[in-house]
Write a structure and sequence with these properties.
Oligomer: single chain
CATH topology of one domain: Aminopeptidase
Order of helices and strands: EHHHEEEHEHEE
Mean pLDDT: 96
Bound molecules: coenzyme A
Radius of gyration: 16 Å
Helix content: 25-40%
Strand content: 35-45%
Shape: globular
Strand order of the largest sheet: 1-2-3-4-5-7-6
Low-confidence stretches: none
CATH architecture of one domain: 3-Layer(aba) Sandwich
C-alpha cells in the first residue's frame, strides 16, 4: 500500500492562493462556515494579519498545499488561556487520504506539548461523518447539539459541540 506522507508547516501570507483553492471546493464549503466564491484579497489579508494567538498549519505534498488547520487561543483572556478552538479543511481532491489526521497530530502536539492547552473545542455539523470520525479518533467527545446553528445550501443545519481534554 502506498502510504502518503504529508509535510506540516506554518501558513504564510504567500499561501493565499492555496487557501482560496481549498475553499473553492464544494465539499470544503459544505463542511465549514465558508461561503462560495472565496476572495483572494480577503485570504491575503487574513494571512498577513492573523489574530493574536492563532496558529495556521498547512499540510503539503511535495510543496503543494492541500489542507489547512487553524488553532485559535485566547491570550488576552486569563480565564480562557487553557482553551483552544480548531477549524480545518482538506482540499476536495485530497480528502480521505490521511491529511486531516496528519494535521491533527501536529495540532494536538502543539496544544499539549507547547501551548499547555487543557481543553480543545470545536463545532461540527451533525451530518459530517468523516469529520466526526476524525475528531473521535483524536479523543474528542460530544458535549451537546446547537440547533439551526448555520445556514447551508438552503437549509438550517445543527452542529455538535465537541471537546478534547488533555490527559494529565
Ligand atoms: C473532515 C476532514 C477534515 C477530514 O480530513 P481527511 O484528510 O479527509 O481525513 P483522513 O483521511 O485523515 O481520515 C480521518 C477519518 O475520517 C474517515 N473518513 C475519511 N473520509 C471519509 C468518508 N468519506 N466517509 C466516512 N469516513 C471518512 C477516515 O476513515 C478516518 O477515520 P479512520 O482512521 O477511523 O478510518 C476533510 O474530509 C474535510 O476537509 N472535509 C470538508 C471540510 C470539513 O468538513 N471540515 C471539518 C469542519 S468541522
Amino acid at each position: 500500500m502506498n502510504i502518503q506522507t504529508f509535510t506540516i508547516r506554518r501558513a504564510e501570507p504567500s499561501d493565499a492562493e492555496a487557501m482560496q483553492k481549498i475553499f473553492s471546493g464544494p465539499k470544503a464549503i459544505w463542511g465549514t462556515l465558508q461561503l462560495p466564491y472565496p476572495s483572494l484579497d480577503r485570504w491575503r489579508k487574513r494571512l498577513a494579519e492573523p489574530p493574536d494567538g492563532s496558529f495556521g498549519l498547512l499540510a503539503c505534498v511535495e510543496n503543494e498545499v492541500i489542507g489547512q488547520l487553524g488553532l485559535f487561543t485566547f491570550p488576552q483572556n486569563p480565564r480562557r488561556r487553557h482553551v483552544g478552538q480548531i477549524g480545518m479543511a482538506i482540499r476536495d481532491d485530497w480528502q480521505g487520504k490521511g491529511a486531516g489526521s496528519a494535521l491533527m497530530v501536529a495540532a494536538m502536539d502543539l496544544a499539549d506539548s507547547w501551548l499547555n492547552l487543557f481543553r480543545i473545542e470545536l463545532e461540527v455539523y451533525t451530518d459530517n461523518e468523516p469529520a466526526i470520525r476524525l475528531y473521535k479518533k483524536f479523543g474528542f467527545i460530544t458535549e451537546g447539539t446547537l440547533k439551526s446553528f448555520a445556514y447551508r445550501g438552503g437549509q438550517y443545519v445543527d452542529v455538535y459541540t465537541m471537546a478534547r481534554f488533555r490527559e494529565k
